[in-house]
Amino acid sequence: MRSILPARRRALLAMAGVCLSAVLGTAQAAEPLKVVASFSILGDIVREVGGADISLTTLVGPDGDAHGYEPTPSDAKKLADARVLVVNGLDFETWLPKLTKASGFAGQTVTASKGVTPRKFAGHGDGHDHDHKDDHKDDHKHGHDDHDHDHDHDHDHDHDHDHDHDHDHKPGHHHHHGDADPHAWQSLANGVIYARNVAEGLAAADPAHAQAYRQRADAYIAKLQTLDASLRKTFAAIGADRRKVVTSHDAFGYFGDAYGVTFIPAMGVSTDAEPSAREVAAIIEQVRRDKVPAVFVENISSPKLVQQIARETGAKVGGTLYSDALSKPGQPGATYLEMFEWNARQLAAALQP
């Protein structure tokens, strides 16, 4: 009897160990994938593709300016705990390599813009004469042969932007992006590429949910493509001579290439790069000469310079555009799709005769 009891105890302990391992394994498998996105627009795309299978943190939140962002110690902690980091690339997040190194991040980095054909700045440094009108015909036939995905999916998703980052963006930090324009998300065709890259990146890090990531991406891409087709028709109906606007900085080049709109930036590539008095005078002269009908401020920068140009030229202030950041929840540009719809409506309304 003495020899039997220990055997039974050992069997019971072994069974308990198996059960505990199974419970712990299930809990670990059910834990959402920890993902960090560099800024709010990218964060929304990641949220759409990742759904409930991820736990998302966005470093530069709504209305935040990623050009002059100053990371905090809490950002380093969030990055250290993450398994995936999603970045724009194209030298947009110039502050991120230092943060990544300081945090000890050892996870997977996904570059959302991989595969995008970068737009080159016509005159990097001044940034004030980036005309797109010569490259566009009125029929706006911009092919997307490489990105045609016929997916008929509905995608309902809650968008909770829980970013409580009120970071200071200190003056004097000039962030040079090289010759490539990093604002590639301002093309919905590029947004399709972003969504695909995000889906594949999440799938590689979390194979158990790979199919779910790809299915969400398919549904989201269908929405992006539908909106893109609609906007092409909208802007094609506006006369080419009126498709000219002034914006705060050079962030809308990809939008201009897609829809045949000439954007005249009051500042250069970065919101930190203040133009000289001579450059401002040249912009004012160009607005008068080309009869530019409207000027727009941006949600991430001061409106003073654009308002000055409007006063001195008689151009109307068309409203606020969302360039490098989404709005806070409840405002017009709280998601990537809503941002695009809002910007397009504001532009089209201001450019109508």
Question: What pattern of helices and strands is seen along the backbone?
Answer: HEHEHEHEEEHHEHEHEHEH
What's the total number of strands?
10
Unreliable segments of 5+ consecutive residues: 21-28, 123-177
The CATH architecture of the domain at 239-351 is 3-Layer(aba) Sandwich
Query: Biggest sheet, open or closed, and with what strands and sense?
Result: 4 strands, parallel
CATH superfamily grouping of the domain at 239-351:
Nitrogenase molybdenum iron protein domain
Structural class, from secondary structure content? alpha/beta
* CATH level 1 name of the domain at 239-351: Alpha Beta
Helix percent band: 40-55%
Summarize this, please?
This protein has 353 residues and is an alpha/beta fold. It is built from 10 helices and 10 strands. The relative contact order is 0.14.
How would you characterize this protein structure?
- The structure is a single chain.
- The protein is an alpha/beta fold and 353 residues long.
- Helix content is 42%, strand content 13%.
- It contains ten helices and ten strands.
- α2 packs across α5.
- It is elongated and about 95 Å long.
- About 18% of the residues have low confidence.
- Pfam families: ZnuA.
- Belongs to the bacterial solute-binding protein 9 family.
- One of its GO terms (cellular component) is cell envelope.
- Keywords: Metal-binding, Signal, Transport.
